[in-house]
From TrEMBL, chain A:
Pfam families tied to this protein: ABC2_membrane_2 (PF12679)
Keywords: Membrane, Transmembrane, Transmembrane helix
Keyword hit for tRNA processing: no
TM region(s), chain numbering: 21-39, 109-131, 152-173, 208-229, 236-254, 286-306
Origin organism lineage: Bacteria, Bacillati, Bacillota, Bacilli, Bacillales
UniProt-recorded name of the protein: ABC transporter permease
Automatic annotation (TrEMBL), chain B:
SUPFAM superfamilies recorded: P-loop containing nucleoside triphosphate hydrolases
ABC transporter domain residues: 7-235
Protein name: ABC transporter ATP-binding protein
InterPro entries documented for this protein: AAA+_ATPase, ABC_transporter-like_ATP-bd, ABC_transporter-like_CS, P-loop_NTPase
Any one GO molecular-function label of the UniProt entry: ATP binding
UniProt family annotation: Belongs to the ABC transporter superfamily.
Highest taxon of source: Bacteria
Entry keywords, A to Z: ATP-binding, Nucleotide-binding, Transport
């Protein structure tokens, strides 16, 4: 086991001693910093003391538009229900220019984390081949399986680190810009015609969790491509392309039933908690099973290829 | 060298696709010797080395290191091996020291003191904390040697170890490898295309060509076997000399130069031929005989084609 920790240290050294990977962390911090400044300088007014009247007026306006735009019915119903809940339970809307509102937006950064993690994952095995270092790496008394596992785990730790950096920096920067607030408010969500109260921090971590499923699957996919094709450009390019287009593609194809077996139809688990499933009949358990199958497929293929390959680079 | 061999190759075969790359190599390597691995490009040297260190699987036969099968008992077998396969490619964005730390974490029981020891040994003390990308090829070669020696292996496998070293560096490495073999009883296996190098460094040499073993011989035997040698006579009239020499040597073994004649013959023939030349009235200014070098021998054995 101490051996395995050593291997993780090795992989981490190879990730963090490279300028490119550190620049990605700086870009992430820069992105959050910039978002904060934009929010701060934004013209939206703070929530007034008169917010109950305002919400009532908003609801009345929405009731009217529902009749004109039946397409948007469910969207408006949701907003109306949330507003009514606020009024009856006296829960003031969260001010956009507040620390927790800003932190609550931070899961958006996971799109960047997705790309950065794919870049690291796509180079993980392929780079060892292109550097030629694979030959010295594999002639140690460590099994190839263990080496591959340490590489995979280090990739995931990199993603986790980026998520933690995002959260911590968003909290700090939000505090600096909007003042520290140690009593986060309540988030309201709407599912199956009911309004549910949630702690905003808990809600935010759930958002991270949902968004991380695509991250996990695509990082694993990039890692597999890297192992099979030993070409980091191919692994990175293809994985980023799929991440960007996959979700859109399944939306477009959602009229076909077989689409439910595609990975991208199942990565958004939020559809079962706050929204409607992409295809009728899909359930949380179904999606989890599909995800598990893809995950096992990706990791098993990487493992088999890495274990059996003759190293002739 | 009467003890048990440290490395045993038994009918080792490699087939890639439908092509047989290695056709069954069998030889043993003992502790305390420097063993040369010689062959033209594409002969299968590197493939064989890759199989010896477990980078490639065997299609047939087996390789034992200290009696442990490299395929079925990989960890135990490889623990005894230190190697550089082809070029010593290290992580360029890390320092030399970080590279060694990296490999230290992959084996058990290498102390920090041992790292300092191998750095000292390969003479990198002054530059070890600089990034590898600033190193010359020779320094990378030294760092490669350091990582191979880190875990005190009993078998050291080096592909082209003197590649990129200056003459002083080559002499140093040669001396050092001999020391390792003689003092510590390590089996040192080197492949090289610098044949003159091998002649100076190796105790025994295996020649392979087209994936077949042509022979394993001690370097001394190898060079001295074959009693024929080229003898050059410096003479005033090469044409007359040819006539004289043709009594003893077949015409196709004679070559004429501007002021000399060269003929292939056995050592015992030299006085006889000289006497004939004198009797025939040819003025002889000098006689020189060249012993065959490993290089000549190698060219002879492998047919002189495709040599690097």
């Amino acid at each position: 086991m101490s051996n395995f920790i050593g291997l993780i240290q090795n992989e981490n050294m190879k990730i963090y001693r490279r300028m490119g990977n550190l620049i990605m962390i700086l870009l992430l911090i820069g992105f959050i910093g910039l978002t904060g400044i934009l929010t701060k300088t934004d013209k939206t007014k703070p929530v007034s003391d008169n917010w109950k009247q305002e919400l009532k007026a908003e609801n009345a306006a929405m009731q009217k538009t529902i009749k004109k735009e039946p397409m948007m019915k469910s969207h408006y119903e949701r907003s109306i229900a949330l507003n009514e809940y606020r009024i009856t339970h006296d829960i003031k809307p969260v001010d956009a220019k507040s620390q927790w509102s800003f932190v609550g937006e931070s899961p958006d950064a996971i799109q960047f984390i997705l790309i950065f993690t794919i870049i690291v994952a796509g180079g993980m095995v392929a780079s060892e081949f292109s550097w030629g270092t694979i030959k010295l790496l594999l002639i140690r008394p460590v099994s190839r399986t263990t080496i591959l596992a340490s590489k995979y785990l280090s990739t995931m730790l990199y993603a986790l680190l980026l998520i933690i950096i995002t959260f911590v920096f968003a909290w700090l920067w939000g505090g600096v810009l909007f003042g520290f607030d140690f009593s986060p408010g309540t988030h309201l969500s709407y599912a199956n015609g009911k309004v549910v109260e949630e702690n905003i921090v808990w809600h935010m971590w759930k958002e991270y969790g949902f968004a991380s499923i695509l991250l996990l699957m695509m990082a694993t996919f990039a890692f597999m491509m890297s192992t099979i094709f030993r070409n980091s450009s191919l692994a990175i390019g293809f994985s980023i392309f799929l991440s960007m287009s996959g979700t859109v593609a399944v939306q477009l194809l959602s009229k076909y039933d077989w689409v439910k077996y595609i990975l991208f139809a199942n990565v958004d688990l939020k559809q079962y908690f706050d929204g409607t499933p992409l295809i009728k009949g899909m359930t949380l358990n179904f999606s989890l099973s599909v995800l598990a199958v893809y995950f096992v497929l990706f990791t098993a293929l990487s493992w088999l290829v890495f274990k059996k390959r003759d190293v002739a680079a | 060298m009467s003890q048990k061999p440290l490395v045993e190759l038994k009918d080792v075969k490699k087939r890639i696709g439908k092509k047989d790359i290695i056709h069954g190599l069998t030889f043993d390597i003992y502790g305390g010797e420097v063993f040369g691995f010689l062959g033209p490009n594409g002969a299968g040297k590197t493939t064989t080395i890759r199989m010896m260190v477990g980078l490639m699987s065997l299609s047939g036969g087996q390789i034992l290191i200290k009696g442990k099968n490299i395929e079925s008992h990989y960890k135990q077998a490889i623990s005894e091996v230190g190697a550089i396969v082809e070029n010593p490619e290290m992580y360029k964005f890390l320092t030399g020291y970080q590279n060694l730390i990296h490999y230290r974490r992959m084996v058990k029981g290498v102390s920090k003191g041992r790292i300092a020891e191998v750095i000292e040994l390969v003479g990198l003390t002054n530059r070890i904390h600089e990034k590898v990308k600033t190193y010359s090829l020779g320094m990378r070669q030294r760092l490669g040697l350091a990582q191979a020696l880190l875990h005190s292996p009993s078998v050291l496998i080096l592909d082209e170890p003197t590649n990129g070293l200056d003459p002083a560096g080559i002499r140093e490495i040669r001396y050092y490898l001999r020391q390792l073999a003689e003092k510590e009883g390590i089996a040192v296996i080197v492949s090289s295309h610098l044949l003159s190098e091998m002649e100076l460094m190796c105790d025994r040499i295996a020649i392979i060509q087209n994936g077949k073993l042509i022979g394993v011989q001690s370097t001394k035997e190898f060079v001295e076997s074959g009693t024929e040698r080229k003898v050059r006579f410096l003479v005033d009239d090469p044409a007359a000399a040819r006539h004289a020499v043709s009594h003893h040597v077949k015409a196709e073994r004679i070559t004429l130069g501007n002021e000399y004649l060269e003929a292939e013959m056995e050592r015992e023939m030299i006085p006889e031929v000289t006497a004939t030349l004198v009797v025939e009235g040819v003025k002889v200014y000098g006689i020189s005989s060249e012993t065959k070098t490993l290089e000549d021998k190698f060219l002879e054995v492998t047919g002189g084609k495709e040599i690097v």
